[in-house]
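Case study B.
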Amino acid sequence: MAVAKRPLLSKTMRHLALLPFLVFALFPFYHMTLTSLKQDKELYDRHAVPLIIRQAPTLEHYSKLIWETEFLTWTKNSLLVTILATTASVAIGTVAAYALARLKFFGVSTFGTGIFVTYLVPTTLLFLPLAQVVNWVGLGDSKWALVLTYPTFLVPFCTWLLMGYFRTVPKEVEECAMVDGATRIQALWRIVLPIAVPGLVCATLFAFTLSWNEFIYALTFTSSSDQITASVGVTSELIRGDIYYWGELMAGAILGSVPIVILYVFFLDYYVSGLTAGAIK
Amino acid sequence: MAIRADEIPVSRGRPRGTARVSGWLDRERILGPVFVTPALLLLLLLVAYPFVMAVYFSLSNAFIGRPSEFIGIRNFVRLWDSDAFRQTFQNAFVFTGVAVFFKIVMGITLALLLNEQLWFKRMIRGAVLLPWVIPTALSTLGWWWMFNSLYSVVNWTGIAIGLMDPPGPNWLGQRYYAMAAVITVNIWRGLPFFAISILAALVAIPKELYEAAEADGANANARFWHITLPLLKPVLAVVVLFSTIFTFSDFNIVYVLTRGGPINSTHLFATLSRVLGIDTGRIGEGAAVSLYLFPLLVFVVWAQLRFVRKQAY
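Model:
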């Protein structure tokens, strides 16, 4: 009995030690959710307890956000930009990664290093000159500017991640197919890509998440309220002068995170493996 | 799981024209460049070229809507003489140093805890990772509300448990508190990356090493310092280098929480660069500010390349 009890005790202690970390990680989300559900009366009562909802919760902030602001347009913009940029980047990244992992040609190692270097270049270093480029090509204040520029950080990322996956596919499988008469492209399409599906899923998920979360390009290259993304809309359009609509702000922050949270719940293990496969911002 | 070659469906007898093209594409020396061309063009036109432009801007008096002239390193000199820039320079190092330090210490602690037998392991891992996947600009809004001068839940709780005297600090309105606030949010958002990466390294350490050490009489403390930490070093190095770049060049948290205030006390390179380059239109100076990031970037890239080379080949 005593032997069985001790591990249980230490297991409990471990969970207790984890508790502060869990509170730290989750409390902001809890508090945001509460705020978004509180009536204004309770929200702005300085004597009310902020940690719980005492009065009847309300969806008023959500309905105001959806019907009285352009939140739906911002979300549509985010979706459009994210889907297009992700698709293009995964496609471009896949072929580049395959070439880097498998083929021998002039300049392959230089290009590999180049990909790695651009993978490390932070977006905050390039937003000023890119703003000029965007204006020159006539995409100033347009969501298409984001479709054009997001691949600059997504392609190096996808290429780097997929290179690792392609290296794990044994060369022999592919060579077998080619001995049997398949061309290299057929071997890639029918043999290598199906084996690399987990890598492709991972790259797609991360590309989707990175572009959904992107902020500085979206903030700098777009400004009209029919062109901006959800992150920019919620952070800049919901604050009028000195008046902050905290309920709507929190509702917007929560709804703007929903697509990512849905993906996250379904693909948690991919997120973990992607994080550990290669360092990711 | 061997795939037998004869099971692979292969179309035979293609028409001649296509045959010649795919024959060409079978040569690595041709297919390779064809495959990297889209990525190469993208990176040349939208990364390398803008970077060269940024360097040119920084050496010119570029101003929105006006032709620019080459003025040498005058922007860099003028910045160095300005109080706002010096403050930013100092902030960047304090912000990065403190945040990365706490992320390392808390990251190792959290990873060690997660590596033990736990109930609801998957759920706990998921919860710990969450701050890192939610859009930073949006989650920072939540922190903004938590640090609100009138309704701060942080202060309410602090007062309730007797840690603070009412009304508690005005987090975003006083300089050192504002810095503490932006650092806290950065740790919150960056901790999962450290914890999960370190956890992966911990899982890979062979159990036999610990058993042998225990047989030799090493206690938990000694085992941590003599086995765990030395074996974590390579991963720690990569994670720290990586995080240093992205903490140093952070934008979202400061932009949403303080806009660099009060009186420039939380500005980082990226936020100052934006204020100068976009809000006041002085593109040249803005570009010069962001290029102060460059030496650090070069160092980290150099260090990373050495590590990556060592591990991959």
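Chain A is about 75% helix and 0% strand. The remaining cases will be described in the next quarterly update.
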